[in-house]
Amino acid sequence: MARRIGAIGFVALLLVFSGSGFAASKRSLLSSFVVQAHSFAELRTLVSGYDIEQRSGLRVEVIIPAAQAKNFQQRFPQAKLVEKDIHDVFTRKDHALPGWRDGYHTFDTVVSELNQLVQQYPTMATLENYGSSQEGRQLLALKITNKTGSVGKPEVLITSSTHGNEIATPELTLTAIHQLLSGYGTDSRMTAMLDNHIIYIIPVVCPDGYINQDRYTNGLDPNRDYPYPDQPNHTSNVAISSEMTWFASKHIVGSIDIHSNAQMVMYPWAYTEDQVAAADLPKFEKISDVLAQDTGFQAGQISRILYIAVGSSADYWYWKHGTVALGFEMGGDDFAPDPSQLPDLINGTLPALWHFVENF
Questions:
Q1: How far apart are CA 274 and CA 303, in angstroms?
Q2: What three-state secondary structure class fits 147?
Q3: Model confidence over 54-83: pLDDT tens digits?
């Protein structure tokens, strides 16, 4: 049985840092509010229109761009401002001590490392550039497989750093890449996965957000920026729209988007509390339960164990492509734990990633 967890602190979920190796000049100014809805109808309006970071009954904690604060308070006069700028919380708490993030990859070192791996493992790894971000940074996916006899293999996708402030997540995916490539031919499990699958890994989905350590990318929450059944014509930020176009050119049957640090394994729907199609629900429940057993995390439908979140990648991949698409929340105390904690966090998560791949 997966472990049940309590409510998630909205400030902890939006941790944004400054420090060596990352730019800090283009962060979004974000404000936090607490709102007590008067009814479930009003609550549905809240969860469908704003970025809800915690819900307890009819009480919600909301993060919105500060420029929208006046309009928000006019719509919901009972809203109470908690922080005008959530970044100030961590400045006051001295989380931005110089050099404290030593040991993490910058975006440049992520790109450099991916290129080095392609050179080191030319028969196993291919780097695909599927576009540029709004600020001109490369959008990169690494394809890993035994290139001999690759026709007909199931294709799976692992992504991280959709939210740019979740900088522990690329450390997980980069470690997974290294273990897969270095283990081929010597580790039977790694060898089997690459013989039998095509694995795509995108360590940084939103490089502009990653560079700035910002959950928001160019003013938008990227995991609320995908079209979904109620908004099929939504226009997405370039990093997300480019990923969508790239995805459509593949035949990806399973995807897992890595976030931190709520300790959950989640499946669609996120935009509604309605369940997925009856024929698909057992597949989602089975794989989620396996991953939850690997980690001790809570498993379930996104909108039911977390909150309603419109415009998520899991909903989009499932809705448009029939993909068994999961959201996965790593453990840890914050989005950038001390580097000394990373090995335990990563090693505790990798078994779930391997079971995810082996499910297809």
A1: 9
A2: coil
A3: 667 788 888 887 778 888 888 889 999 888
135 by DSSP, 3-state: which? coil
d(CA 194, CA 358): 10
Tens-digit pLDDT profile for residues 195-244: 999 999 999 999 999 988 888 887 788 999 999 999 999 999 999 999 99
Query: Average model confidence (pLDDT) for the chain?
Result: 86
β-pair type (252-260, 324-330): parallel
Tell me how far CA of residue 109 lies from CA of 21, 71, 168, 344, in angstroms.
Answer: 10, 41, 14, 22
Under 8 Å between Cβ of 16 and 165: yes
Report the alpha-carbon angle 233-239-242, nearest 5.
65
Contact 316, 244 (CB under 8 A): yes
Tally Cβ neighbours within 10 Å of residue 217. Answer: 30
- Longest distance between any two alpha carbons in the chain, whole Å: 63
| Sheet (strand 155-160) strand order | 125-132, 138-144, 198-202, 155-160, 252-260, 324-330, 264-267, 298-301
Show the domains of the chain with their CATH numbers: 12-92 (3.30.70.340), 107-358 (3.40.630.10)
Does residue 8 carry a pLDDT above 90?
no
Amino acid at 177: I
For 20-59, write each residue's pLDDT tens digit: 333 433 556 778 888 888 887 787 777 666 777 666 778 8
